[in-house]
Amino acid sequence: MNLDNLENKKILILGFSTTGIACANYFALKGANVYISEFEPLKEKNKQKVEELEEKGVKIEFNGHSDEFINGAEFCILSPSIPDSAPILAKLKERNIEYFSDIEYVSFFDKDKIIAITGTNGKTTTTALTSHILSRKFFAPYCGNIGISPIEYLDKDIDYYVVEASSYQLHYSKTFSPYIGIFCNLTPDHILWHKTLENYFEAKAKMFRLMNENQHAILNYDDEMTKKLGEEIKAKVYYFSLKEPIQKKNFIYLKDNKIFFENQEIIEVSKLQIVGEHNIQNAMCSILAALILKMDIETIKEALMSFKAIEHRLEFVRTIEGTDYYNDSKATNPEASIVAINSFDNKKVVLIAGGRDKKTSLDEFIKAIQEKISKVILIGEATQRFKDALSSNGYYNIVNSKTLEEAIDIASLDRPDIVLLSPACASFDMFESYEKRGEAFKNYVLSKK
Question: How many Å apart are CA 439 and CA 444, to the nearest integer?
Answer without folding.
Answer: 8
